[in-house]
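quick q for whoever's on today - can somebody do inverse folding on this one?? i tried earlier but teh output was garbage lol. tokens:
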């Protein structure tokens, strides 16, 4: 996410070299940020030159087998006026309240009078220029984006709005642990309005909808499944407040446990997909291990924040958030630009595509050993996958620089190439796999 003009990945030097580096290290998807301010600089007028840059990045990612989640007209603190980013200047309706106090991210969301009023007016679909409601403008913008990008390959879906904030209702939402029905209804209306607009442009698109960001701390402020679309998924984040304040994972397990449990229940109750689309912004290894281990245990995919620091003005720890230090340098990613300790945690072996129903997956602490199991039965219970349908497992070289050994039960390997294994089931019995460092590496 590039939060500064020109608001594109190309603007910070992200190119084919970076995409190839991601693919080599086993990354399967990218959450690619866009900015409403860049797309709609004046009401009802869209900058397709900007979207062409976004499309080029999506195409580069697809060329290396990486899917793109188009990210949410990325929102943090609404507008540059409030030390944030997201809305065009013409969409800032603060009723003349002062941009005070200015205490930066994220505290402005709690105390800045102008920012809180701007959030309130946006969520209430207050009429702006031309007498058109702000949410209606926002939905029309998304319709244009989906229509423009629909021909692109490899789009995973559209993440509607990053970490929405309930405006002046936040105190009630926190005090009641999420039982603030009026604020929740405003977000539900926004999500449904935007999802309907996207589906009108691309009926096959998946709308990824997010809860208010107090969810990140373990508060179950669950949004409703959007109406107006046949395809929806819950996009959620996990940031333990202790780690955010102290930079340590100590005491975070209860917070993260609640957040993962909340996501599991929401996905099951609403019959939607679930993806942890943001966590991290830290160099703290215990935090990264704990959250990726929890994701494996809950059988949920994840996307780490972020690829680079990119002069990010609204993040937990800009200096510590990146994996790669200088994407603007020409040529391939240099080893001295990579946080190798972080990469060793994040570029982990994983099942990428399952011909069946996942049962469990685990990375054994301290050894690098990876295990997984699945049954070839279809997830909807309607039968079994054909024995020729492969399950794909990514095995990044960074985890096994001297090679690895594979043990398979209930199936066999049909192909092994480019850091990937392809396996098929021998019967209708569960298939298991264990990947360990080769004996040569142990010495």
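ok took a stab at it. sequence:
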């Amino acid at each position: 996410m590039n939060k500064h003009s020109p608001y594109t990945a190309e603007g910070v030097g992200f190119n084919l070299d970076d995409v190839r580096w991601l693919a080599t290290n086993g990354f399967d998807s990218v959450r690619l940020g866009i900015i409403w301010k860049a797309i709609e600089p004046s009401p009802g007028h869209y900058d397709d030159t900007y979207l062409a840059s976004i499309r080029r990045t999506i195409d580069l990612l697809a060329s290396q087998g990486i899917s793109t989640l188009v990210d949410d007209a990325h929102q943090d603190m609404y507008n540059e006026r409030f030390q944030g980013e997201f809305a065009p200047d013409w969409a800032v309706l603060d009723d003349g309240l002062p941009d005070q106090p200015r205490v930066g991210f994220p505290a402005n969301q709690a105390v800045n009078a102008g920012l809180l009023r701007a959030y309130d007016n946006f969520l209430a679909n207050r009429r702006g220029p031309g007498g058109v409601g702000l949410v209606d403008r926002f939905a029309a913008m998304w319709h244009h984006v989906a229509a423009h990008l629909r021909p692109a390959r490899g789009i995973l879906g559209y993440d509607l709005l990053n970490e929405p904030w309930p405006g002046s209702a936040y105190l009630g939402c926190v005090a009641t642990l999420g039982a603030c029905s009026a604020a929740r209804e405003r977000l539900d209306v926004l999500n449904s309005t935007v999802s309907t607009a996207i589906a009108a442009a691309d009926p096959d698109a998946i709308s990824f909808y997010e809860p208010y960001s107090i969810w990140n701390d373990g508060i179950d402020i669950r949004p409703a499944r959007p109406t107006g679309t046949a395809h929806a998924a819950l996009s959620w984040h996990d940031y333990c407040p202790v780690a955010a304040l102290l930079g340590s994972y100590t005491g975070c397990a209860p917070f993260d446990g609640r957040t993962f449990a909340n996501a599991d229940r929401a996905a099951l109750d609403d019959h939607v997909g679930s993806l942890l689309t943001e966590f991290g912004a830290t160099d703290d290894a215990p935090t990264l291990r704990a959250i990726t281990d929890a994701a494996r245990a809950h059988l949920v995919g994840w996307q780490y924040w972020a690829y680079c620091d990119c002069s990010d003005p609204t993040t937990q720890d800009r200096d510590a958030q990146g994996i790669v230090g200088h994407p603007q340098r020409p040529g391939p990613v240099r080893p001295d630009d990579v946080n190798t300790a972080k990469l060793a945690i994040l570029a982990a072996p994983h099942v990428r595509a399952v011909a069946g129903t996942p049962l469990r997956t685990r990375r054994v602490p301290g050894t690098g050993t990876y295990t997984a199991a699945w049954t070839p039965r279809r997830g909807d219970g309607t039968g079994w996958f054909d024995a020729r349908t492969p399950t794909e497992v990514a095995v990044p070289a960074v985890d096994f620089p001297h090679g690895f050994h594979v043990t398979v039960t209930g199936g066999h390997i049909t192909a092994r190439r480019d850091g990937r294994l392809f396996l098929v089931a021998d019967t209708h019995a569960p298939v298991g796999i264990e990947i360990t460092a080769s004996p040569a590496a142990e010495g």
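fwiw The first helix runs from residue 16 to 24. also The first strand starts at residue 29 and ends at 33. so keep that in mind when u check it
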